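Na+/H+ antiporter subunit E
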Amino acid sequence: MTAPDAGYPALVLLEVLPWWLGLTGLWVLTLSTPSLPEIAVAAVAGLLCAFAARAARRAVGGAWRFRIRWVRWLLTLPWTAVRESALALVKVVRHPRAGRFDTVRLPGEPEAVHDARAAAAAVVIGCTPGTMVVASPDDLVVHRLLDGDSRVLDEVRR
């Protein structure tokens, strides 16, 4: 058994805190009328899930290195989600078996950065109704419901 890294509590905090804030925020966003007990439950559940996410990353030996510039992907989400919602609704009504599989090539980066990009991209892409990630061997395999370009996919490729 190896000794914990120097600064161990700080490293745990740096990993768990963003998960906790994001998961708690997501839970609160789903509440129609937030109350103190519901926010408290969201905070506790978010904390448990944040530690579970850390444990899962450690279990698979992940060493992700996220880049702050990837936050810009979120700027394309609102418009893309609204646009693709309308287009997807029309598409499935007209063609219930619509869709195709594509490969999204990711830039060549060190493994930890590449894996982090693939994970972050899967989350962001999954927030749009027109595309979903179905696999991520080296590049992302996505199912595209809509034809044409996607601003979110364009951002992820950069």
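thats it. Residues 68-157 form one domain. The beta strands are 100-104, 131-135, 140-144. bye
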